[in-house]
Amino acid sequence: MFLAETNKTRNLLHLSFIARVSAADLKDGAIEVRALLADLTEGFRLLTDLSHLDAMEPGCEVTIGQIMDLCKAHGVGRIVRIIPDPKKDIGLTILSRFHYGRGARVTTCESLAQVAKMLAH
Predict the structure, then answer these.
(1) Which range marks the domain in which residue 19 is found?
(2) Number of domains observed in the structure of the chain
């Protein structure tokens, strides 16, 4: 399952990857992300949560790259990821280099509690 939601007050896009993510779920989610970005202003923060991810189907990396491109085009200012186990990094680090470029501000945390402390500042 893939979930996308925004918090307009915090200018935040929150993407959650839960259990098994299918390519079809992610394609539908990319359409939703495009619509949600309209609610956010340039410099928005992107929070990607992989803490509940069990598996991802092959082919999802293409759509993840498209979502990254959408976020970059809309002016993402900060990218924060929750990856409790480095083995769950589904290639986001590599994809980021191609889709966000070298100037992207990316931080990886192990828990939502760490993210809350960091984003509170």
Answers:
(1) 2-116
(2) 1
| The residue to which tokens 């990821």 are assigned | 81
Q: Which two tokens stand for residue 119?
A: 């984003």
Determine, yes or no, domain membership for 121. Answer: no
Residue whose C-alpha is closest to residue 71's, from 94, 51, 48: 48
- Whether this model's pTM surpasses 0.85: yes
CATH code assigned at 95: 3.30.750.24
Positive/negative CA dihedral, 14, 7, 65, 2: positive
| pLDDT tier at 121, thresholds 50, 70, 90 | low
Angle at which helices 60-73 and 23-37 cross, to 10°: 10
